[in-house]
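Researcher: We're teaching a course module on how sequence relates to structure. For the next exercise, students receive a sequence and then see the predicted structure as tokens, so they can try to spot secondary structure elements on their own. Here is the exercise chain.
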Amino acid sequence: MSYRRSLIHLFAFCMGTLWLTACAAMQNTPAQALAWERWSAGDHFATVRLDRIDLDGRIVATGAEYEVPAFTGCMRQVAAEQIQKGLAPPSAAALVTTIEGQKGRK
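Model: And here is the predicted structure for the students to work with:
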């Protein structure tokens, strides 16, 4: 019984190591890299926070109602520049925002 338990532990260790190695080797897609560039350019709005960047480069963010229009405009401007430079396809401007209403407004 002890030999079998040792084999199970060894197998679990090997599978865990394999899984961690695979996760460490994953990189962003080209669309995600461009989306990160867009996010970095617009990451100065106090209430807007990044929820995620999807594999297709779509940025999903949440922000207060009064900052979302300016944030959206910033994202579209950077996306237009990327498209003009030939770095991104016309669909690069994909952006999803959730509006939090009047939170944070004084």
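Model: If you want an answer key for the exercise: Residues 2-25 form the longest helix (24 residues). Helices lie at 2-25, 30-41, 68-84.
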